[in-house]
Amino acid sequence: MCGRARCTLRADDIPRACNRTGAPVGTINMDRYRPSYNIAPGSNLPVVRRADGSDGDGFLLHSMKWGLIPKFTKKTEKPDFYKMFNARSESITEKVSFRRLLPKNRCLVAVEGFYEWKKDGSKKQPYYIHFKDGRPLVFAALYDSWESSEGLDTSSEILYTFTILTTSSSSALQWLHDRMPVILGNKESTDTWLKGSSSSKFDMMLKPYEGSDLVWYPVTPAMGKPTVDGPECIKEIQLKTDGNPISNFFLRKEIKEQSNMEEKSLFDDSVKTNPLKGLKEEPIKEIKKEGESDLEQKNSCDISDLANQPKRLKQEHVTADDSGIQSSVKEGNHNAKSSISILANENTAKRQKTEDIEEFVADLKSAPHRIDKLGTIAVKKGNVKDAGGKQPTLFSYFGKK
To answer: One Pfam match, by short name (predicted)?
Structure first.
């Protein structure tokens, strides 16, 4: 069906769009035409028709109301322009309202595009359909005249109206709607429709337009109101993905599969770059603790080796100097090795001297009969002389002490 259209063409562009360029074209009521992006039934649109009584090249550009009001309609009846704004091309030879118009009341309607709605439950999404190159679409149409007793037309009591023929939808547009307007895509078809006799085989041209140059895109649902007009009516919009439950099912399935593939890819990358990331958290902590323990053991071994300390010294109390040495080793000081060697040698020498004195005293207490020998040792170690320059005896040594 075709219930909304865009026609912002200038009056002199319409005959050219309908392939009427050779002979001059007269005009009727063109002052009523108002270009619009959102033309609805009841609005005035220019149509190209043959001049009255003309069987040749006489044509008129006539502004008529969209929505056929048959001539036999009662004069007192209020016209309903939405009742017959479309006519099924398959039945125009059967219905009285259209059959009597075929011989002489054929016309052409030129627009830049039309709108169609896609139903999705309770929602309807409009689409704008047009030629890719922007050229006007030319529809096959029928017109009639009706005389009203109330004088609806200010210039006369005769009202001219038209209806646009429709056919089954093309293969490319079947997803959108089952009907579409009859589009006459070349000069031959427009000439046949305007100038052909009543015996012409119109059914050969009243077919769906299958050209690939007919394109479409979604537009704002706000244009569903006839009062909404302007370039925003044909502005393309982005549709939300939550409209169609069936399409959402496949979309969710596609997203889920894609997510699984991404997770697999990330897992593969993590294994390649860092195999430990594929393990559980607890083994990681254990490994870390074991590693730290091994490192501490290694550091402690290095300290003992570098210091070259005897085993008995390990059980003694650790001094401040020793703890400083250990801390410097743990912190990774590159001078720790040399510092440990020097301090360890000094400590060893001090301990050795102390131990010799303690051993001397212990032997003295435990064995008095070795006084001579010990005195000799004391003299040899101390090398002590008295004020007179004489070698002191063992008794004089202990007397001084």
So the answer is: SRAP
